[in-house]
Amino acid sequence: MKVAVYSTKHYDQKYLEHVNASYGFELAFFDFLLTETTAKNAAGYDAVCIFVNDDASKAVVEELAALGVKYIALRCAGFNNVDLDTAAALGLQVVRVPAYSPEAVAEHTIGLMMTLNRRIHRAYQRTRDANFSLDGLTGFNMHNKTAGVIGTGKIGVATMRILKGFGMRLLAYDPYPSDAALALGAEYVDLKTLFTESDVITLHCPLTPENHHLLDAQAFSQMKDGVMIINTSRGGLIDSQAAIDALKQQKIGSLGMDVYENERGLFFEDKSNDVIQDDVFRRLSACHNVLFTGHQAFLTAEALTAISETTLGNLQQLDRGEHCPNQVTA
Ligand code: NAD
To answer: Does residue 322 carry a catalytic annotation?
Structure first.
């Protein structure tokens, strides 16, 4: 099988090539995104392998089908960037990596929480400049605080496990309650209760058309003053402009974002020599109590290995006409 791997970074290539030694696929690595313009590069390939910011919308899927591409292999869990209806109509099969390392994302989530809470990012800057003043660095004990977890699937539960270790009260919101979350002592509540009672709110649900801007001005207005919000899920879950207003009003006390609604074309790239045109991103990143990481929550050696193994395993199953449990359907 010939596979066109879009949006390849050095680490993707390294782990995919290593795992591919036992599959023997013909992998071509493209360092650019899949878009309407770059879809033509998939000519002659059986499969495209894509990541979170690649565009597999209607027009792109149509182009891929016309080129004879049969499979779209997502090397991520989310599939909001793929038009599944068009893929199904044109006979393209779509597979994903539903779980590669929930702990990788959960641990990064906690990293953002603790950095923001104890102002470690600010302390790092100060101590490098021999400024050992503690003014402005006061945090709060996680112990006995309330964490609100939105989405209690694999990552949500892995995060809760750590939060429970801090001695936090766990509130949860998910249309499908999880036994694992309940076993950790989580209390399922409606969103309003979660917003009203949580000191820390962390997002672990997928982005769907229904929950776009789940955290908007109205949601922020219901939260505690000084609430901490962490998003390692998908950028579109937070209305960034409304977040700026809530930060200015000191409603949001700190905001950690590994994902951002307009991250496409920005994250995963070195933009240090460019002038960033996105004023919303600029405004947010200028706040001392906002911490961005560039969609790196998944980035551990264990996760990259698991992503490569599952992706190539998925493609092998499709190639052999076997049932693939990781197939995504409309
Ligand atoms: P999962 O499918 O195991 O769990 C998702 C949970 O969200 C499910 O229990 C589902 O019922 C729930 N849910 C769906 N819609 C909801 C809503 N509107 N409100 C509340 N809950 C809702 O998925 P997971 O493996 O835990 O991953 C969660 C998300 O994390 C993914 O969808 C993806 O967007 C994101 N993710 C980010 C990274 C990263 O590097 N930042 C890496 C992997 C996954």
So the answer is: no
